[in-house]
Amino acid sequence: MQIFKDKTILITGANRGIGRSFVEALLNNGVGKIYATCRDVNKMPTFNDDRIVHLALDITDDKQVALVASAAQDTEILINNAGTVNPGNILEGGLLGMENDLQVNYFGTIKMMRAFAPILIRNKPSLMINIISIAAYSPLPSIAGYAASKAALFSATQSVRIELAKKDVSVYAVNPGAIDTDMNKGSDWKMADPDRTAIKILENVSDGTLDSIPDEMGQGMYTTWREEPAKLAKLFSDLYYSENTK
Ligand SMILES: NC(=O)c1ccc[n+]([C@@H]2O[C@H](COP(=O)([O-])OP(=O)(O)OC[C@H]3O[C@@H](n4cnc5c(N)ncnc54)[C@H](OP(=O)(O)O)[C@@H]3O)[C@@H](O)[C@H]2O)c1
């Protein structure tokens, strides 16, 4: 993972889950500096490493995004990891939850991409890594708003990849399956561990894989989708009806 050596990296949602695992994996792989950002810095783990700079950042807050961008002008790699999920299907799910998923996962990440694009261009060659979801390929109706927000983010990521292609900024799309974090609390699925997932994502980026799926469950779903998109839709349909008959 030489490409992370001595680099300055900003991570959103770094206090827990995959974001926290990114911080730990990068510290173990020779990173130069990490801007570890999260909504409430009091909730940031003590990483005990002077390469860490803590910054408060809610990615939906324009002022905070601007402040963080001005404080982190030396960023060479941006990891857009922060995300949220609200349960509910399209016909009966709460609209507020759906709006929130869009505000955070889609518009919040767009705010970060816009604020940091000039910085990444100036500090080229540079990387932007967006953590999306396998649900971008096919929706699970019990988290339909989340799936829509991630499909929108997947599209925005592909667009920004083209927009930045001639500016020496490489844009990576990562679409995991289910990972064992707070996001899946209470689930009895056999899920990938966030530490292992973060390392796999960083390895895939190191290898130059622009579109990657870091975990076995996600890879299985992606293979199914590639064979025939309707097959993944059927898998999620079966899952949805089994969830609703429990
Ligand atoms: N876990 C999975 O199965 C899975 C699968 C595919 C993709 N992903 C994606 O992976 C990313 C990380 O998820 P995770 O599993 O690590 O979830 P997690 O453990 O629930 O952590 C989510 C992180 O995002 C932060 N966050 C939420 N809203 C935010 C906002 N408005 N501004 C800044 N930070 C915000 C949270 O901060 P607070 O502590 O302040 O809430 C937390 O640090 C997300 O984008 C998620 O959609 C996860």
CATH class: Alpha Beta
Q: In CATH, what is the homologous superfamily?
A: NAD(P)-binding Rossmann-like Domain
Quote the average pLDDT. Answer: 97
Secondary structure: number of strands: 7
Largest sheet, in brief, is: 7 strands, parallel
- Report the C-alpha radius of gyration, rounded: 17 Å
Strand order of the largest sheet: 3-2-1-4-5-6-7
Structural class: alpha/beta
**Unreliable segments (pLDDT under 50, ≥5 consecutive)?**
none
Give the CATH architecture.
3-Layer(aba) Sandwich
Number of helices: 7
Overall geometry comes to globular
Distance between the termini: 44 Å
| Beta strand % | 5-15%
Please characterize this protein's 3D structure.
Helices cover 45% and strands 13% of the residues. By secondary structure, it is of the alpha/beta class. The protein has a single domain, classed as NAD(P)-binding Rossmann-like Domain (Rossmann fold). Strands 3-2-1-4-5-6-7 form a seven-stranded parallel β-sheet, with helices on both faces. It starts with 7 loop residues before the first strand and ends with a helix. Residues 12-13, 15-19, 38-40, 43, 57-60, 81-84, 104, 108, 131, 133, 176, 178-179, 181-184 line the site of NADP nicotinamide-adenine-dinucleotide phosphate (NAP).
Could you give a short description of this structure?
This protein is an alpha/beta fold and 246 residues long. Helices cover 45% and strands 13% of the residues. The protein has one domain: Rossmann fold.
